[in-house]
Design brief:
Elements (H helix, E strand, L loop, with lengths): L3 E5 L4 H17 L2 E8 L6 E2 L2 E2 L7 H28 L4 E7 L3 H11 L4 E5 L5 H7 L2 H8 L4 E4 L1
Parallel strand pairs: 1-2, 1-6, 2-5, 6-7
Antiparallel strand pairs: 3-4
Length: about 150
C-alpha cells in the first residue's frame, strides 16, 4: 500500500489532528513519514490576505521577520516530529518557502517520492471558499499522488 507519506502542517488545531491521524496511518502501514510546512517568502507576505511586495524596508527588520517566521515553522515541525516519536516512528521534516503553498507541498511530495499526502481541510464553504481558495483543493486538483483529506 502506501510506503512514503507526506503530511503538511500549518500549526492549526485541525492540522495537528491530521498530523495525529497521518502518524497512526503511517504506523499501521509501516510507512516513511515526512512533515512539511510551507511559508510564503517575506517579499510576498500579505496584509489582509493580499500579497504585498516588500522592497523598501531596513535589512535589520527583514532579518527579524525572516527569523521569526523560520522559528514559527521550526516549532510546527518539532510538534509534528514529537507526535511521530511518541508513536515510535522516524520522520523527516522540511521547511519550505514558496509563493504558492500548494506548489511547495507538491514539490516536496515529488522530490521525496511520496505516494500519499495526508492533509487537513478547514472546510470553507460558500463565497469564502471561492474568494479565499483552499490550499487543500489546490493540492487535490494538481496532485499526481493520492491525497487523504482530514476534516
Amino acid at each position: 500500500m502506501y510506503k512514503n507519506i507526506l503530511i503538511p502542517t500549518d500549526g492549526s488545531d485541525l492540522s495537528e489532528k491530521a498530523v495525529n491521524h497521518g502518524v497512526l496511518l503511517a504506523k499501521a502501514l509501516d510507512a516513511t513519514l515526512t512533515f512539511v510546512t510551507v511559508r510564503k517568502p517575506f517579499h510576498s507576505l500579505g496584509l489582509g490576505g493580499e500579497p504585498v511586495m516588500v522592497v523598501k524596508m531596513p535589512d535589520a527588520y527583514k532579518g527579524y521577520v525572516h527569523d521569526y517566521l523560520t522559528a514559527e515553522s521550526s516549532e510546527r515541525l518539532a510538534a509534528a516530529k514529537s507526535v511521530a516519536e511518541q508513536e515510535g516512528r522516524d520522520c523527516e521534516t522540511v521547511d519550505v518557502e514558496n509563493d504558492q503553498i500548494y506548489q511547495g507541498i507538491l514539490d516536496i511530495a515529488a522530490e521525496r517520492k511520496c505516494d500519499l499526502i495526508v492533509m487537513a481541510s478547514h472546510g470553507r464553504r460558500g463565497i469564502s471558499a471561492v474568494v479565499l481558495g483552499s490550499e487543500t483543493v489546490k493540492v487535490l486538483t494538481h496532485s499526481k499522488v493520492p491525497v487523504l483529506v482530514y476534516r
